[in-house]
Automatic annotation (TrEMBL):
Residues 18-107 form the Pyrroline-5-carboxylate reductase catalytic N-terminal domain. Keywords: Oxidoreductase. Signal peptide: none annotated. It comes from Paenarthrobacter nicotinovorans. InterPro entries: NAD(P)-bd_dom_sf, P5C_Rdtase_cat_N, STEAP_metalloreductase. This is NAD(P)-binding domain-containing protein. The keyword Transcription regulation does not apply. Pfam families: F420_oxidored.
Length: 227
């Protein structure tokens, strides 16, 4: 698994396989899965101290920096809220050309917790893709997994299912390889427009997590497709 990314992308393994922008709990969880799969990880954040602290917590194969620096990884994960993700992609511009950009956001209206903030017929991922430079490929993934479960890569003793949507086969294959290497199951559900359903479904799940009527839910559940 160590060189899976190089085989998928058809070139030598880069010094940094994976760049994660953000230094919160989702960044920690995704980094943990990347490290479990043998990748090297770069953490970039607006707060250099927090990024450095997270990198130190995660271990020797992790470097840190600020969002003033261009991301070095071939896969760039936007582990930030939706509005911040749009700003980051717009600001980086051509520095993201040739990258696989992973959008993990759920565009929930957190003031009301009763709707999404994107218009019907679109998604956060599609809006981010419109801002991304030519030659980059946006992939939706990890929006249906919670941060706590990602650290272990499982929920209830079962590996996490990670739903993936994207328009470019090589980019979705790269993200699938990241997921598999981290001990989880990738499920490619179709083109990027399927992000609309993934975001809507996760919104429903989030409202259930926050609902006190579901006493056993504590943001540690996972979606599982079984038969």
């Amino acid at each position: 698994m160590k060189n899976f990314l190089a085989r998928i992308l058809g070139k030598k393994t880069p010094m940094t396989n994976l760049t994660i922008i953000g230094n919160g709990n989702m960044a920690r969880g995704i980094a943990a899965r990347g490290l479990a799969g043998g990748l090297t990880v770069e953490i970039l954040g607006q707060d250099p101290i927090k990024a450095q602290e997270l990198a130190a917590e995660l271990g020797a194969r992790v470097t840190s920096g600020t969002t003033a620096a261009a991301p070095q990884g071939d896969i760039v994960v936007l582990a930030v809220p939706f509005d911040a993700a749009k700003t980051i992609v717009s600001t980086y511009g051509e520095a993201l050309a040739g990258k696989t950009i992973v959008d993990i956001t759920n565009p929930v209206n957190f003031e009301t917790f009763d709707s999404l903030v994107v218009e019907p017929g679109t998604s956060a991922a599609e809006e981010i893709a419109q801002l991304a430079p030519s030659g980059s490929h946006v992939v939706k993934a990890f929006n249906t997994t919670f941060a706590g479960t990602l650290v272990a890569g499982e929920s209830g003793g079962k590996p996490l299912d990670v739903f993936i949507a994207g328009d470019d086969d090589a980019a979705t294959a790269a993200v699938s390889g990241l997921v598999s290497a981290g001990g989880m199951r990738p499920l490619v559900v179709g083109p990027l427009k399927r992000a609309r359903e993934l975001e809507g479904f996760q919104f429903v799940l989030m409202t259930m997590q926050a609902n006190p009527a579901f006493e056993d839910f504590n943001w540690d559940t996972g979606l599982l497709v079984t038969k």
